[in-house]
Amino acid sequence: MTTLHTRARAATGDALLVTRRRAAQDAALLAGTAVLLLGTLLLTLALPRLMERSADEAVRRTLSDAGTAADVVGLPPYAGPFVSDRVSPVFATADLLDDELGDLVEAPVAALRTPTFEARTPAGAFLTRLETVVESRDRDAEHVRWVAGRAPQLVPAEQQPPGGEGPRTVEAGLSAPAAAEIGLDLAGGPVRITMGRESVSAYVLVTGLYEPLDLASPVWRDAADLLGAMPTDEAASVGLQAGLYVPHAGLADLRDLNPTARLDTSVRARPAADSMTLASARSLGRQVERLAATTGQVAGDLPDVLGAFETRLTAARAQASLVVVGLAATGSLCLVLAAGLLADRRRAALAGERARGASLASVVLRALAESLPVVLAVGGLAWAVVTAVLPAHRGSVSVALAVAAVAVLAPPVLAARTAAGAWTGRRVPADRRVRARLEAGRQVRRVVVEALVVVLAVASVVSVRTRGLVPGAARDVDLLLAAAPVLVAAAASLLVVRVAPAVVRAAGRPAARARGLAAPLAVARAQGAATALTPLLAVTVAVALVVLSGVLAHTTRVGQREAASVHVGADVRLDGRLGPGRGADALGALRAAPGVDAVATGVQLPARPFEKGTGLSVTVLVVDAAELAAVRAAEGLPVDPGLAALAGADSPAGTVPALVTGDLLERAAEHVPVASPQVSLHHDVVRLDVRGPTTMQADRGAPTLDARVALPVESEDDGVAVVDRARLAAAGVTVPDPDRAWVSGPGAVAAVAALDLGPQQRTGITVTSRHGWWSAWAAAPLTASLVALQTAGVGVLALLVVLALTLVVVATARERGRTLSTLRTLGLDAATARAATLGELAPLVVGGLVGGTLIGLAVPWLIADALGLGTVTGLPGPGRVAPTAWPVAVAAAALLVALVVAVGVERSLRRRDRLGEVLRVGDR
Fold first, then answer.
1. CB neighbours of 835 closer than 8 A, spacing ≥ 6?
2. How far is CA 227 from CA 250, 640, 828, in A?
3. Does pLDDT of 691 surpass 80?
4. Which of 94, 121, 796, 827 has the most CB atoms around it within 10 Å of its CB?
5. Bridge partners of residue 45, in order along the sequence
6. Which residues cross the membrane (predicted)?
7. DSSP secondary structure string, 543-566?
8. What is the largest distance, in Å, between two alpha-carbon atoms of the chain?
9. What's the whole-model pTM score?
């Protein structure tokens, strides 16, 4: 029999029998460890899948919130002004989108429209245009119900002018709500409308009134004037506009109108948001980019919408990775503590095995035979539960596999360490110098390991700060980013272990002079526990991630409110047609409404030439300066020092007071000397009297709810100039009508609601309230799920803190019990025993709380660029960390509860001790 064979038999002999007996003796501890492992695996398996589900919901919400900006736009090829058939290319482009994109989009809608013209009827005049909207997948489908008259039809050839000379006739329908608002009645038969001012180009017969069968149909998405009458621009001679609907059956007459080159065409396909997933959205984006590059017939902002969403998703995943990996790390450390407790309970048995000649390989094998089946069974159960609850989503399993590996390997490693410590076979040298040299070698190895951990922690933080926010794999957590807090906590734990003995010794001097046994005993117990690394690491990591998760959740909430203030700029914001007419009336009513403190209007004029000869351009903001300063001050937004004074400032004749971006004048002076720069405003040239710099930027307009809102405002101009509206008008400059207004005051929301402006499609005015935008943005799936994860992570990590301290108390109960039992024979009371327990836990609790709190507050600031705070909150720019005290209070409360639990556990373990038994048995 070979030596290898003998060793193999010795290592494996009776492994299963011994394992089964030991498992039966420690069934309760093994069951508790299995429950802890099950909970950790459920979290690490379910959370990545929940992140994927939230991503699917978020991409659907993004495409819906983006509106028409997310549409895939077809560009029918233009064959020239003399080509009579402009219809076929439209449907060919629609078929191209349908064939290439398939189920990723809804049915492409082809639209053909004539230019707008004025229709005069017995009921009055209104602006109109002939329109045909057709779904490419079912061109003959009926989208309306005719409620009066009859459906339009093709006009017979004999009723058209012979040879195509002269005005042709087209039959069309009018929506019933528009007819009611205009006053048009078909009781006397079809109504004829003439196209053309000076000469007749065509006749339109309104043969019927209709109602849409489905208002949500995509055919009406870009044709609001076919659903009802809309107010026109203030410059128009008539007040209403309503489209005239030509069904697909009458398209040939619309096509033959002269001149056909003036027929406007469009093709749009809305993404199938209801069935969209993250994977299909990415596929759609790639398809659109490919078609745009290869055919030139596809355009739209969909790639930009999806690109902004991907950036926001990456930021959310980066923050979620911190929680997932933090939970896994803390759970793994608790598993290590449980494995250490198990090895300590079996110390006598392992020492006996080692004394009888058992090899460390046999110890490891028996421990593996116990841990591996448990981990496989628990892992299989966790996988089955997660798959049953979340079957349609897949997530990363790398973190769960790491936890499982710790659960498998920790018991064998700690069992082997315990057995090796019982008898190493090494003799202790008698020479004191040799012993000192060996101890110095151990200290050097320890310093090297600790320095390596510190270097890794610093390198991880530096690496994350350097690279910033980067897209990760489709379903993988950002391990480098998530490992940074854990590595920093490990480095801090090593520092605490180094510093704690000196602190305890310093505390021991006044304790030695104290009366009674409680203080000296507590310090003595603390001195022995000050160097325990694993418990301290578990508590420090848990506390750090409690604080970190709480700070990030608080930062997201605060940042969302700041984003609402930045984007809306007031309690309520109005965008659109605010000139003479309905818009001006609404502004006047708001100024007189109770509870409205200020109403500021403005208009933005981009790409205005700035000082001839410099080649610079500027965005001019024409605002009510004093009112805007009041609105921004009430909103807590920065106010330029000279903004309010623009309205009343004295300036040289022929100039207008203005605030200009700080470096714009310096850049202009590099080309020509500039004293009072000139700015071209359409037909006027204005000379500016610069009163100071401005920090205001180009305004985005009505804020959207998709991820693009967090991107900086794109502007090709070199700066911004702010002028007062009244001063500009007093200088004789034609001032454009305002197209945005900010309303502040406690009654602003109610005042705007009382105006009953109606939907934007009909009034041309978009209403956005700060609270409404914030509520919608905070309720978005991605943001809401991230904040929920971080908040829940605080609670789970707090429970793990309690569990870690409880495991530490139970693991050290035997050794502490021997000391306390001996002291009880000398008159030790229960209060002093509790003081000993608290003293032993003091370095662990205080060190973990202080170190974890500092790490939890510092890490978000250190790696802020890699967390995408601005992208998540909606703030343009990098965002900022908002520290808060409540996570620290939660961590401190968790540690306090853990201390209470620890003292209770200690008391329960010592409850059955009898003084007579201690005197009879002695040390145990």
1. 518, 519, 521, 522
2. 19, 45, 90
3. yes
4. 94
5. none
6. 27-47, 320-342, 363-386, 398-423, 444-462, 482-508, 529-552, 792-813, 841-864, 884-905
7. HHHHHHHHHHHHHHHHHHHHHHHH
8. 128
9. 0.85
Scan for tokens 């197209």, then name that residue: 739
Q: Is the pLDDT of residue 47 over 60?
A: yes
At 161, the amino acid letter reads: P
More confident residue, 744 or 864: 744
Picking from 299, 315, 337, the residue at the C-terminal end of a domain is 299
What amino acid is encoded at 672 in this protein?
A: V
Shared domain check, 248 and 122: yes
Instruction: Show Cβ contacts of residue 732 under 8 Å, excluding neighbours closer than 6 positions.
Output: 684
Task: Assess whether 398 and 539 both reside in one domain.
Answer: no
Task: Identify whether residues 783 and 855 lie together within a single domain.
Answer: yes
Q: Which of 744, 760, 788 finishes a domain?
A: 744
Cα 244 to Cα 13, 134, 228, 240, 482, distances in angstroms: 92, 14, 10, 13, 59
- For 356, the domain range is 1-54+303-423
Residue in 916, 899, 911 with CA at minimum distance from that of residue 844: 899
* Residues 254 and 110 placed together within one structural domain of the fold: yes
Output the pLDDT for position 236: 60
Report which residue type is found at 669: A
Let me know whether 90 and 231 are in one domain.
yes
Q: How far apart are CA 245 and CA 225, in angstroms?
A: 10
Q: Which residue has the tokens 């017995």?
A: 122
Number of C-alpha atoms within 13 angstroms, CB side, residue 792?
11
Domain co-membership, 89 together with 233: yes
Count structural domains, the chain: 4
The 3-state secondary structure of 602-640, one letter per residue: EEEEEEEEECCCCCEEEEEEEECHHHHHHHHHHHCCCCC
Q: Is 112 within the bounds of a domain? A: yes
Please report whether residue 193 resides in a domain. yes
